[in-house]
C-alpha cells in the first residue's frame, strides 16, 4: 500500500511536464557556425522548461551528444568559487576582507606589500590589482616546476610563493582588471581557510547539495574515452582538432578556481535556476545577506568590444558574476561567459523574473561566441515571462 507522502510525491512528479525539446532550435546553428555540438536549456521558477543537445562529441565523427553529456563551462566556474567564499565566510573560516598576507603568513616575508593587503572580495571582483597578463608567466613557472609530490592546494600556494615579490599592476580597489590569477589566489585562500582543496570543497559544498550529479573538474571527457563532447582548437586553416583528455585537454589544473568546471546542460540549468530563485528555493547554501552580496555589482567594467570569447566585454562585475542590461532583456541580467580555449559556455540569470538561460558548445572561437549569443537572445525572447 502506498503511503500518503509517497502518493503525493508521485502525483507531483507526474504533474511536472518534461522539458520541451530545443533540438529543432539548436540544430541549424551546427552548420551555420561550424559547431561540432551545442546544448541549451531554459529555467523558469526553478523548473527546466526547455532543453536540448545536438551534434557530435568529436568533429568528423558521428557520436551524438545527449542531455546528460558534460560540457566545459570555463570561467562560469568563477561564480562557484565566489559562492564557496560566501559559504566559508558564513562559517567563520574567512572574511570578505581577509588579506593575502593573513591567509599565507608563512609567505609574508618578502611579499609585495600591495599583494599582502589585497582582500578576498577584491580578488573575486577583479579589483585586486593583479595583472591580467600573468597566464603566460604561470605556464612558464609550471613548466619549470620540479616538485612532483604536492596536491593542487600546495601547488597553488607554491605559485603564490614564486610570484609574491612581484608588484601589482594597479593599487587594490582602484580599477577592474579581469585576472584568472586573482581567482587562483582567492581559491588558495579558501583552501587555507578550510583545510581542503578547492576541488573537494566545490563538489562537496555546492555540487552535492544542489544535486549536480555530473559536475566535475578538468577535462569533461575521461582519459582514453570520448564519453563527453571533446573541446576543439581551431587550426589556421579553419579546421577543428578535437582535444582528448590529457595534459592539453584543459587549462593548467592550478587554475581550477578560475575556470575548470564541467557539467551537463541540465546541471548547468539547475545551477543557474538556483541563482535565479535568489533564495526563494532551497537548498539554503548561504543566507539572504550573503546571496544579495553575491548578486550585487561592485565595479563598472570598461567597454571592450574586442574582448576574447570567454571574457567580459562591458557592464559591471560583482563577485563571480557580470551585470548588464541587454537590448532584449527588459532589465538587468546577471551573466558570465567561459572558455578554456577549447569550449565556450554562457549563463544568463534574471532573478527579477526567476528566469535563466544556459548554452554551451565544444568550439571556442568568435563563431562559437556569435552562435551562443544568438541562441541566448532567441531563447530569452521566446521563454522569458513578460513584466
UniProtKB/TrEMBL annotation:
<dbReference type="InterPro" id="IPR001466">
    <property type="entry name" value="Beta-lactam-related"/>
</dbReference>
<protein>
    <recommendedName>
        <fullName>Beta-lactamase-related domain-containing protein</fullName>
    </recommendedName>
</protein>
<feature type="domain" description="Beta-lactamase-related">
    <location>
        <begin position="22"/>
        <end position="376"/>
    </location>
</feature>
<dbReference type="InterPro" id="IPR012338">
    <property type="entry name" value="Beta-lactam/transpept-like"/>
</dbReference>
<dbReference type="Pfam" id="PF00144">
    <property type="entry name" value="Beta-lactamase"/>
</dbReference>
<dbReference type="InterPro" id="IPR050491">
    <property type="entry name" value="AmpC-like"/>
</dbReference>
Amino acid at each position: 500500500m502506498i503511503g500518503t507522502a509517497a502518493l503525493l510525491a508521485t502525483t507531483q512528479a507526474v504533474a511536472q511536464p518534461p522539458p520541451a525539446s530545443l533540438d529543432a532550435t539548436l540544430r541549424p546553428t551546427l552548420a551555420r557556425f561550424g559547431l561540432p555540438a551545442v546544448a541549451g536549456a531554459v529555467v523558469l521558477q526553478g523548473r527546466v522548461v526547455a532543453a536540448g543537445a545536438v551534434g557530435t562529441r568529436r568533429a568528423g565523427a558521428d557520436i551524438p551528444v545527449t542531455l546528460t553529456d558534460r560540457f566545459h563551462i570555463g570561467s562560469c566556474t568563477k561564480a562557484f568559487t565566489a559562492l564557496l567564499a560566501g559559504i566559508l565566510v558564513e562559517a567563520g573560516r574567512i572574511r570578505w576582507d581577509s588579506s593575502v598576507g593573513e591567509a599565507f603568513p608563512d609567505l609574508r616575508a618578502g611579499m609585495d606589500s600591495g599583494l599582502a593587503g589585497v582582500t578576498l572580495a577584491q580578488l573575486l571582483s577583479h579589483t585586486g590589482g593583479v595583472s591580467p597578463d600573468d597566464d603566460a608567466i604561470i605556464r612558464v613557472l609550471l613548466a619549470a616546476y620540479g616538485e612532483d609530490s604536492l596536491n593542487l592546494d600546495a601547488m597553488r600556494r607554491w605559485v603564490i610563493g614564486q610570484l609574491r615579490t612581484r608588484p601589482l599592476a594597479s593599487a587594490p580597489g582602484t580599477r577592474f582588471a579581469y585576472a584568472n590569477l586573482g581567482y587562483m589566489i582567492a581559491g588558495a585562500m579558501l583552501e587555507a581557510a578550510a583545510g581542503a582543496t578547492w576541488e573537494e570543497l566545490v563538489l562537496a559544498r555546492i555540487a552535492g547539495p544542489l544535486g549536480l550529479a555530473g559536475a566535475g573538474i578538468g577535462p569533461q571527457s575521461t582519459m582514453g574515452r570520448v564519453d563527453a563532447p571533446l573541446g576543439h582548437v581551431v587550426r589556421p586553416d579553419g579546421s577543428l582538432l578535437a582535444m582528448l583528455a590529457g595534459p592539453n585537454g584543459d587549462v593548467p589544473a592550478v587554475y581550477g578556481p578560475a575556470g575548470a568546471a564541467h557539467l551537463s546542460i541540465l546541471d548547468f540549468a539547475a545551477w543557474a535556476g538556483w541563482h535565479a530563485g535568489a533564495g526563494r528555493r532551497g537548498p539554503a547554501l548561504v543566507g539572504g545577506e550573503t546571496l544579495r552580496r553575491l548578486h550585487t555589482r561592485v565595479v563598472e567594467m570598461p567597454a571592450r568590444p574586442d574582448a576574447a570569447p570567454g571574457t567580459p566585454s562591458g557592464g559591471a562585475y560583482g563577485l563571480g558574476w557580470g551585470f548588464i542590461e541587454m537590448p532584449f532583456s527588459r532589465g538587468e541580467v546577471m551573466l558570465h561567459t567561459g572558455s578554456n580555449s577549447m569550449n565556450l559556455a554562457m549563463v544568463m540569470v534574471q532573478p527579477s523574473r526567476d528566469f535563466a538561460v544556459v548554452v554551451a558548445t565544444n568550439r571556442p572561437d568568435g563563431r562559437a561566441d556569435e552562435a551562443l549569443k544568438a541562441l541566448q537572445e532567441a531563447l530569452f525572447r521566446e521563454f522569458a515571462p513578460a513584466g
